[in-house]
Amino acid sequence: MTNSKKSAGISMKDYNCKNQCTWCDGCGNYGILTAIKRALIELGLAPHQVLICFDVGCHGNMSDTLVGYRFHGLHGRVISLSAGAALANPDVPVIAFGGDGACFSEGVGHLVHAIRSNYNMTFILHNNGNYGLTTGQASSLTPRGEKMDMAPLGTVEEPLNSMDFVFSLNPSFVARGFNGNISQLTNILKSAIYHQGFSYVDVLQACPTYNKFVSHEYLLEKCYECEPMNFETARKAAVDTSEKIATGVLYQDKTRPTFLDQLEARKGIDSRLVDEVKKVDVSALLAKFS
Amino acid sequence: MSRISIKIVGAQGQGVNSVGEMCAKGLKRAGYCVFGEREYMSVIMNGHSSYQLEISNEKVRSTQEKVDVLVTFNHHGIKKDLKDIKENGILIHQTPQWKFGEEDQKFIDVNSIKVIYLPTEDILKKLNAKPVLGNVLITSVVWSLIERSSDELKEMVRERFGHKKDLLALNYLCIDEGVKFSGSGSEKVCLPEPDEKWKSQLLITGSQAMGLGAIHAGCRALFGYPMTPASPLLTFLAEIQGESKMLVKQAEDEITAVQMMVGAMHAGTRAMTATSGGGYDLMTETISLCGISETPAVIVLAQRPGPGTGLPTWTAQGDLLMAVSAGHGEFPRAVMSVSDAEDSFSLMMDAFNFSEEFQIPVTVLTEKQIAESLFTTEISDQKSVVRRGRLVEGDGLKLLRATDRYDPDAPDGVSARWLPGSDAPTYCAQSYEHNADGSFDESAENAIAQAKKRMKKMEGLKRALPEPEYFGSENTDVLIVSWGSNKNAILDLIEDESVAYLHYTYLWPLKTERLVELAAKAKKTVLVEGNVQGQLGMLIKQECGLEFNERVLKFDGRATGLSNLNLSVL
Q1: Which residues of chain A neighbour B430 with C-beta distances below 8 Å?
Q2: Which of residues 99-128 of B touch A (CB under 8 A)?
Q3: How far is B546 from chain A (nearest CA, A)?
Q4: What is the pLDDT of residues B125-158, one digit of tens each?
Q5: Is the pLDDT of residue B440 over 80?
Q6: Domain residue extents for chain B
Q7: Which of B98, B222, B329, B530 has a 20 to 30 Å separation from B81 between CA atoms?
Q8: Cβ contacts of B242 on chain A, cutoff 8 Å
Q9: Tens of pLDDT, residues B471-517
Q10: Peptide bond into B229 cis (omega under 30)
Q11: Residue whose C-alpha is closest to residue B508's, from B389, B357, B334, B351
Q12: Rounded CA gap, B253 and B224, in Å?
């Protein structure tokens, strides 16, 4: 990410969009929208200097509610799409948004391998514990037994322990935020975007329409702010949410090289893939077949 | 045409390919046109595999059914392939004390086949050489049989093992033993006179040519997931990444591969992915995404027989209709097919150019038969240029409005495209139906305007694509129409017969003007395809109503060879 190109005088209005917001009253997405705009502004990034990618889900409608280069792609695939863009042009920070349905069911494989690969990008999970846009089905993060749209008698599957799962993949950056604490979330997002490598940001959010098990008030009461920890302590703090919920940048390894940094074939090359599109003389390579 | 066929058969892992490739390289250098075809089973060891070489001083691009020389590594090869030998042909086998069955012995006698037993094990034991050196010994025996100098062979092993002195010496000894062995017999195979012109040409597989074509076209990233017969392309580009400086990524699945490619294309580089039918199935939703978001994409679809896992290591042309219609909804796209190494190279520039000029997904079809066959060919594509269509960069960015991105009134439906990071108004590349700047718009008027805008691109694309290519003399009675690898056998045929051939490289959108004109003049039209339904024929009928008099359809996993083009049909 190039902070050298910091644009001066960027303000909220630069990111404001003429389109109407269509989220429900009390939706956690409003807080996340405010936080991402503030984070980008405080990082000095103008709308044309970022690429923001969206999965499909309620959160994805954010693609219509702010400006900036955006790609609103397919359900479950936002991480792979973003990774491709991030590799092609590391000068443009890539921020991917996805829900818990997209990220832990439809596209869970992409998350696994993106963490392993440590692509230099930020992934922000809108964690509302259900599928909102399709009217309240259970996600793999919905607690067992909840009565949901496609499980009116209650779900029977064990929920996935998302933080334990993420930590098992040896991530280089893990944070958790809450849409009710916008100033903390802004700082988390700034750190995540600034981090060199794959930044995983779990944002707990209320879904007053379909999530009857975790309310805004519940999160307000349970969440507490903490400082980055070592791997084991962070994992423990992230996983154990029985009494209270740890938020903040929980773990960061600043020494881990990114995928691109490790590619032997690209070492010592300053140009970006996006700058290299031109006809290439391959006579030397062809000569090997004479 | 005067041609000689040599077929090497054995268990996978025994060295069939290395003998085949070594012979091919030596013969090309000696002034012959060589075509090499590989057949093998979907296993790593012990499956039956073969490498057939066609050798001529004229252009040769396909194999014959019957061969002049059969070299077998094991007794299965003797039993399975003996009857592929021509009258007066030669069998070289390495199975000690082999007794032919009654029927086989009769076949040998009736056809005057010369049987040579090569005691490979004994010779290698004498030289204290490892079994792998048997490949050089066998090559040397074949080499002597076709009356070529062993110095040529020594030069080749020196290139390969020159840095390992002991190994090189042992290789030389094996060559000498092969010469000595052959010297004791009188059997010779008479090759036609060599022609200097082949020496300067390349000996290259379709996959290698396609990989170099992609690099030549400015492709800077490859995202793929292993699947035969796309794997040779993926592997080749991975092998040469040190030289090409291309980013090569093995993704966790085909969906990831195609999504990463689309992300990279959207960011503004040239990227590609390659897969076979099953992988392409998984990619189709993303192809549809490219349709609505108007993102350029290049996907190589290396065909093998389906459905399901099918015949993974064999060849087919069964995925044309899939490529033409893959993905939900209606959107513009291009489908083109390579036929040999030469166009495997040149078509990549076309694929990238059309994908960027029209902001569409482009599928490049190849086949196992093209991907893994060795062609003697010229590759020169210095005339080609990188065309990026309405990509706006530099000063032009200042004039842009966000609503230019998906402007429904753009000429030919092709609107301006500019890249993330450009200092210009921003837009949203939208998977949802959207209006001019990529904002949601569910109105009926907008849905019509955007659908029309996108589909309009097909008109400009169709105008831009070349007509099918015509081969053969004027005023011929028989007109053959085909696509893909069939071209090779058909061109080998029409050099001897008075037939004409119309070859489709650009399959969608389909141009039929030239076809209709030629079909009207011909007494008989013949469709040749490697699938059950005659898929190109179906598209042709759909587009212009033309029906063929005859259809030659092959769907046994084997390539169309000369013998399949039944002259009674023609």
Answers
A1: 63, 72
A2: none
A3: 39
A4: 999 999 889 999 999 999 999 999 999 999 988 9
A5: yes
A6: 3-200, 203-377, 394-464, 469-564
A7: B530
A8: 264-265
A9: 987 767 899 999 999 999 999 888 767 789 999 999 999 999 999 99
A10: yes
A11: B334
A12: 8
**Residue B552 belongs to what H/E stretch?**
strand B550-553
Q: What is the mean pLDDT of chain B?
A: 94
Q: Where are the domains of chain A?
A: 12-259
Record: contact A72-B420, CB cut-off 8 A: no
Question: Which residue reads 């996907």 in tokens?
Answer: B299
Residue B288 CA to residue B303 CA, distance in Å, equals 20
Pairwise CB contact (< 8 Å): B218 & A279: yes
Task: Write out the CATH class of domain B203-377.
Answer: alpha beta
Pick from B11-20, B187-196, B345-354: least confident: B11-20
Cβ of B421 within 8 Å of Cβ of A89? The answer is: yes
Q: How far is A226 from chain B (nearest CA, A)?
A: 34
Q: Does domain B3-200 have CATH number 3.40.920.10?
A: yes
Q: Are strands B506-508 and B499-504 parallel, antiparallel or unpaired?
A: unpaired
Q: Is B269 on the interface with A (CB under 8 A)?
A: yes
In chain A, pLDDT over 90 holds for what percent of residues?
97
Asked if the model's pLDDT at residue A109 lies above 50, the reply is yes
This complex has an ipTM of: 0.97
Q: Is the pLDDT of residue B305 over 70?
A: yes
Question: For the structural domain made of B469-564, what CATH number should be given?
Answer: 3.40.50.920
Nearest CB partner across the interface for B220, out of A64, A273, A289: A273
Residue A2 has pLDDT above 70, yes or no: no
Architecture of domain A12-259: 3-Layer(aba) Sandwich (3.40)
> What amino acid occupies position B329?
G
The distance from CA B393 to its chain's CA centroid, rounded to whole angstroms, is 36
* Closest approach of B285 to chain A, Cα-based (Å): 8
pLDDT at A146 (0 to 100): 96
Instruction: Compute the distance between CA of residue B287 and CA of residue B476 in angstroms, rounded to an integer.
Output: 41
Residue-wise over A74-84: b if at least 16 C-beta within 10 A, else e?
bbbbbbbbbbb
Q: Do A285 and B268 touch (CB under 8 A)?
A: no
The CA-based angle A37-A42-A47, given to 5 degrees, is 50
Amino acid identity of residue B494, one-letter, is I
pTM of the model: 0.97
How do B202-205 and B374-377 pair as beta strands? Answer: antiparallel
Domains B203-377 and B469-564 share a fold: yes
B379 with A286: Cβ contact below 8 A: yes
CA A27: distance to chain centroid?
Answer: 18
DSSP H or E run through B69: strand B67-72
Token pair, residue B70, equals 């059969």
